[in-house]
Amino acid sequence: MPRAVASFHEHSRLHFIGSWRARYEEFLETKIHQQNLVDDSPPRAPPRVVMHVDMDCFFAACATRDRPELAGVPVAVSWGRGEISSCNYEARRFGVVAGQNVDAARVKCPHLTLVPYDFETFERVGLEVYEILFEASRGACVGVSVDEAYLDADAVVGDDDGGDVEDAYERAAARVRAKIYEKTRCACSIGIGANMVVARLATRRAKPDGVFRVREAETMDFLAKTAVRHVPGVGRRAAATLTTLGIVTCADVRRARREDVVEALGTKSAARLLDAARGVDATPWRVRPQRKTVGAQMSWGVRCTDDEVAMDFVRQLAREVSQRMQKLKIVASKTTLKLWRAVADAPPSAKHPQGHGACDVLTRTRPMKMATNDAREISDAAIAAMRELRVEATMIRGLGVSCSKLDDALLAGNVRRQPTLSQMFRTDGRDKNDEVEKKDEEEEEDIAETESEREEDDEDVARTQSQLLQNDCDFALFDDSQAEMDSDRTNVLRAAYTAAARRYAWQRHELERLRPGKRRRETISEDEHAERAVAASADVVVAHARRAFIRGGESGLRAFTNEARALCRSQELLPERYGGQGASFTAAWLHRVDAVEAVVISK
DNA sequence: ATCCTCCCCTAC
DNA sequence: TAAGGTAGGGGAGGAT
């Protein structure tokens, strides 16, 4: 069983970094009430001059600020073994760098002092810094991370910076730095430039503990020497590709042919780099960017012995996401499941035995019936998506759940909540669909069912039906339109078939895309893929059968399954274009129809 | 034309 | 035992 998500998060440095945004949103809420900070929609014009504030070796500085005995001593933050997260400049003089192994660092610097992570302090100091930045810039502050932000430099310049206009920005920056140091005893560096990119690049030159300003007239010369790798947005991959084109500095970018850069990076990224190299930055200035997703994932120490364990873990993640959404007072209408699948025959990593090792990362998105932040709704959608991926539980090395298509919960509050189909079918802690699948699998191995199981089925059916009768539900609020409800069952089935065929076609398409020679390697056989495609398409039949049962009870379901069988045998719906898989397609459908009947209608 | 899904890349 | 999380931008190719 994987470690609990919450307990993992307590110790995860990346979780701290990643979840900073949620805390910052909270901070912004308080600022909105205190100051006349308004939403930046429509977007405000970018500042004429930008300051980029970045704390110096933030984690190490926080960890040592209350320990005067560590002043001037080489210090690094780590768990005591493994990687170094951050180290001070004394340690860097010995060649210690972030990301280095503790043992390697000790070789370079035998007197290195290791200090533990102190996330509470990191957060507290970060917020203290932001208090100062918001006050100094009168709200013209764009937060990037717990230790990094952009300011409108003109908003920071005050009367006491006056006199010599020439270096007013430098004076203002020095004032901010002094305030931050006074309050937090942590050093920061400030870069000043004509836009966010230039300011950010200037900060590199300001470090440590300094200010560096790139004046308007100096911008082109300054950029000419700058490596493309340092331009924000140009990462490891892009830099490597550009190097093969002989593009290493921004001066090289200016000389390069536009088509070559577009070919290497794509239209948008190329445009941004070409602009940046010429001192132009069109990044919008957003003090309060709109959040688009809420998610939680874990790919460390995840080992599942069976499907039930994997589903439990997904439920945990869904609970986590649900809680975060409730705190943010938002709802979502899409759920995406992310799954790390071990590459077949890949050896476990010797360096990180608990890590995910070589994996394919798969995602699948499912709509939810209506905008919600309910943990159960989210986990239902996520588990449905996971079943669709059909990955053997023992191959799972990581899972993630994230919600998108976000909306304000207050708006959604006006919508009358209705039970969803999965809730209607639910009898206890488990989803009925799970049981359908389970029974389906059991039947393949052992047709005989025990008497007690049959009785349980009887009870389930009776209970579900009586609930349906008592609730007198408004079916029009479900995901099917009234028109579809009124139409005859054959049309419903045709719709089911079309949906299944679409899914099948998509699976075929995916198979094509994953062929060797493309960027990704193929890790499952073509046969297996086709098999999964057929099975996945049959899920659609189950979904429609469930609806038929809810609407028409046992007789409704029987009518549906009978027509389904007739339609499958008629060949009418099996055009050749579905990859010659028509026969197995039909077989899978018929098998599923039998299975649903066997479970829902007790014999 | 525009949106959607899944994937890759990037930043911190 | 370590602690490979969170979120956004963008592209390819398909659906509408």
Name the average pLDDT. Answer: 80
Regarding quaternary structure, how should these chains be classified?
A: single chain
- Please give the alpha-carbon distance between the first and last residues: 37 Å
**Shape annotation:** elongated
Helix content: 40-55%
Instruction: Summarize the biggest pleated sheet.
Output: 5 strands, mixed
Rg over CA atoms: 29 Å
Largest sheet: spatial strand order: 5-6-1-7-8
User: Would you report the number of β strands?
Assistant: 12
Description:
The structure is a single chain. The protein is α+β, with helices and mostly antiparallel strands and 603 residues long. It has helices at residues 5-11, 13-18, 20-34, 58-64, 89-92, 102-108, 119-137, 153-156, 168-184, 196-206, 219-224, 236-244, 250-255, 258-265, 267-277, 307-328, 375-389, 409-412, 421-425, 432-445, 451-471, 482-486, 489-513, 526-570, 582-600; strands at 50-55, 75-78, 84-87, 113-115, 141-145, 148-152, 188-193, 211-213, 293-298, 330-342, 359-372, 396-408. The strands form three sheets. A five-stranded mixed beta sheet has the order 5-6-1-7-8. Strand 5 and strand 6 form a beta hairpin. Helix 7 (119-137) packs antiparallel against helix 9 (168-184) and helix 20 (432-445) crosses helix 25. The longest helix has 45 residues, at 526-570. The model is unreliable at 413-487 and 513-522 (pLDDT under 50). The structure holds a DNA duplex (12 and 16 nucleotides).
Secondary structure layout:
Elements: H1 5-11, H2 13-18, H3 20-34, E1 50-55, H4 58-64, E2 75-78, E3 84-87, H5 89-92, H6 102-108, E4 113-115, H7 119-137, E5 141-145, E6 148-152, H8 153-156, H9 168-184, E7 188-193, H10 196-206, E8 211-213, H11 219-224, H12 236-244, H13 250-255, H14 258-265, H15 267-277, E9 293-298, H16 307-328, E10 330-342, E11 359-372, H17 375-389, E12 396-408, H18 409-412, H19 421-425, H20 432-445, H21 451-471, H22 482-486, H23 489-513, H24 526-570, H25 582-600
Parallel strand pairs: 2-4, 7-8
Antiparallel strand pairs: 1-6, 1-7, 2-3, 5-6, 9-12, 10-11, 10-12
The chain binds a DNA duplex (12 and 16 nucleotides) through helix 1, helix 2, helix 3, helix 12 and helix 15.
